[in-house]
């Protein structure tokens, strides 16, 4: 028992001994601290003051970063190019949105104590069975992880058992998210149809429109990103991670030496889906809406672009890519909204040609050059 506990603890704490992880966590928590101080301590009107809108925007970027880490886990280390992770993100967001809608109660436009406003407008007589329980925070937060995890478990079991791989698996994941998008657009599904879920008021009793709540959500998203990153690093640096990399590079050979590859694929795929669902749940209260557009296949493809631009199979590169691309999107859509997709395509082509390993690969190359130019004194002696 003692040996098992020690082994388990070592497996979970192994990432803390890596310089890359230490640097990532240091930069992340420093950013959280700086934004918090500039928001609270610096008075409004000062050039360094970070207003509530910017805090909210940064929180959105961090939720996207967690989603990118989830995609990099399956694509970078398992070789599964998922074009459907937007579905897991959206399901987690809908689970959070259902809880937030149940918290409105009689304060809604129609004043119904149980039914959300859109159900009253559509003449629903009673609450659908799958909405029950979402008035309780613990149940809703559990469903944030369990709903996308269960979908990934069923989908992954059928796909990996049938040994669907490569481009065929990518097409199937994209078909999954497209089918869910079409289903959630229907009013009779009971999820708000085209308009989705919105007009949220409070979370755990805290007013979502207050600056303090927005700051708290920003910090919570940063902590979730740190924990998600550590979990993924713990997976990829373990024996499980080595088997995943072997599966990515030579699946047939890995099967030949006796590993049940589909079990490893299924486990990592489910973990990734649950992280994506958590990202969606953190995204919704900060943005204030969740609708079927989050299921769009284009969004799932955009997530893959974040990872590719940042650097596949690095995890921290996925974070860099998600933040850089979405910051650029904010700037470009404000200046030239019609040109954003062209700019994103051009950026992807340039990085693919000039930086095939992404921004993380460039940083690694610069680090190696610096070490070559300034070798340790012992080596020079």
Describe what this molecule looks like in 3D:
This protein is mainly α and 381 residues long. Helix content is 70%, strand content 2%. The chain has helices at 2-13, 19-40, 52-76, 85-102, 117-121, 137-161, 166-184, 211-236, 239-249, 251-256, 261-287, 297-310, 316-335, 340-354, 358-373, 377-380; strands at 197-198, 202-203, 206-207, 289-290. Strands 1-4 form a two-stranded antiparallel ribbon. Strands 2-3 form a two-stranded antiparallel ribbon. Strand 2 and strand 3 (206-207) form a beta hairpin. Helix 4 crosses helix 11 (261-287) and helix 6 (137-161) packs antiparallel against helix 11 (261-287). The radius of gyration is 22 Å and the shape is globular.
What labels would you give this structure?
two-stranded antiparallel ribbon, single chain, 2% strand, mainly alpha, 381 residues, 16 helices
Largest sheet: 2 strands, antiparallel
Question: Based on CA inertia axes, which overall geometry fits?
Answer: globular
Q: Please, what is the average pLDDT?
A: 89
How much helicity do the residues have? 55-70%
The number of distinct helices, counting runs of at least 4 residues, comes to 16
- Order of strands side by side in the largest beta sheet? 1-4
* Computed Rg: 22 Å
Low-confidence stretches: 1-8
How much strand content do the residues show?
under 5%
- Count the beta strands: 4
Topology pattern, helix = H, strand = E: HHHHHHHEEEHHHHEHHHHH
Return the structural class. mainly alpha
From the N-terminal CA to the C-terminal CA, the straight-line distance is 48 Å
